[in-house]
Amino acid sequence: MEAKENRDFRDAVVKAVGDSIFTCYQCYKCSAGCPVCFAMDLQPHQVIRAVLFMQRERVLSSRTIWLCASCETCTTRCPNEINIAKVMDTLRHLQQASGNQSRESKIPIFHNAFLASIKKSGRVHELSMIRDYSLNSGDFREKLKTGGWRNDVKLGIKMFLRGKLKILPPRCKGIKEVRNIFHLSEEHKKT
Amino acid sequence: MRISFFPGCSLEGTAREFGESIQSVCKSLDVRLEEIKDWSCCGASSAHCTSEYLSIALPARNLSIAEKTGKDLVTPCAACFSRLKTAAAMITDESKADFEFPCTGKISILHILEFLCQHDFSEKIDKLIKKPLKNLKAVSYYGCLLVRPPEITDAEHWEDPTTLDILVSRLGAESVFWPYKTECCGGSLVLTRVDVAKKLISRLLDMAGEADADCIVTACPLCQANLDTRQDEIASEKGVGQEIPVFYFTELMGLAFGLEGTGKWFRRHIVDPRPLLKSKNLI
Lengths: 191, 283
Known about the structure:
The complex is a heterodimer. Chain A is mainly alpha-helical. In chain A, about 65% of the residues lie in helices and about 0% in strands. By secondary structure, chain B is of the alpha/beta class. Chain B has two domains: about 1-115, Glutathione S-transferase Yfyf (Class Pi), Chain A, domain 2, CATH 1.20.1050; about 130-280, Rossmann fold (3-Layer(aba) Sandwich). Chain B has a four-stranded parallel beta sheet with strand order 2-1-3-4, sandwiched between helices. Chain B has a four-stranded parallel beta sheet with strand order 6-5-7-8, with helices on both faces. The radius of gyration of chain B is 19 Å and the shape is globular.
């Protein structure tokens, strides 16, 4: 069962990004140029190798797949034209589908809050999106303990006074169409 | 000249001064920006991190609205630009049946920097300059998604882009070379892994200082917000560090053109750029 799961995992990545992934010769160029490498538990070139070795658990439980900032440096520089940023995206999709909690749990929670904001009003409302993220991720509770909330409040007040925080959510008349896109996306995941 | 405009979500909030300066500068260049009707969010990074379908279908809705106007589409946000261009590239004849809003790719998608750096504008810009930005030393910051990946952005020089540098020099400022033009600012991690984002921001600020620049010039609402908002936190954590103003390039255009309203834009910055501009006799 596990062996099949591991093979399916590799095949899903190959299907999404193409056969070019097999050409990786571990030149490290992706890792050398990665701006977030210092915080990663698996470096980008190690992720590619681990995918090819079908190490599903090792890859999907890594912090790396969520820490990747999608800056596209690796994809741009890869001598074998492997779309590494897309590999990372695919791994995030697979991680979310696995139903397990990530060690970088705040990052997917942020993305969910961002998408929920779009689903609600068609456009992102920064203020309520940040509120939802802080509450859902436990970030707010954590900052209450550490005192980190002071920096956030200070910045929030500065932004408000400078007219940079829109209080009322935006309106988009096409909201039904936008919600339908989300619905279709869920349908798409099932197929 | 009329062109379709996709402002993106941040122009209504954190990047208001970008929106305001774009409107003023375009007006003086006789460009009429026509906001596309009822646009919705492009989905940004959150969509492509979550579902490929969503990452294409969300921008596709906007593309199909824009295509109805028949005019090319300009956007000021690097993330919107990247998502719109990616969707346009991904919706092919074979795949379009999957999407509710198929677009045909008949219009061009341009970032506002690319648009204003077109050859046709250079003479006009030269004529409009009333107050050259003398003695202002600026590093041009392009960030990630304006240039990468070049297959999507159509950037000519993705490792060492020059369009913004050329424009800054055209305005009379000194464009200072630095090696971090396209290094990531960590914008996508600023709420979730502040420690990582601050490290990336800090690197950029330090390098701008090392290059002896007075300010950083950006063309992306996310990069500007990210570089502008965390400077005092970073300075107090390090115990050293001087704050450096971060401009939108259109603000500098407006300043050089002598447009009204520049004061209002500069007041919106977290790192107040006015002391610097005063010291250079530019305001």
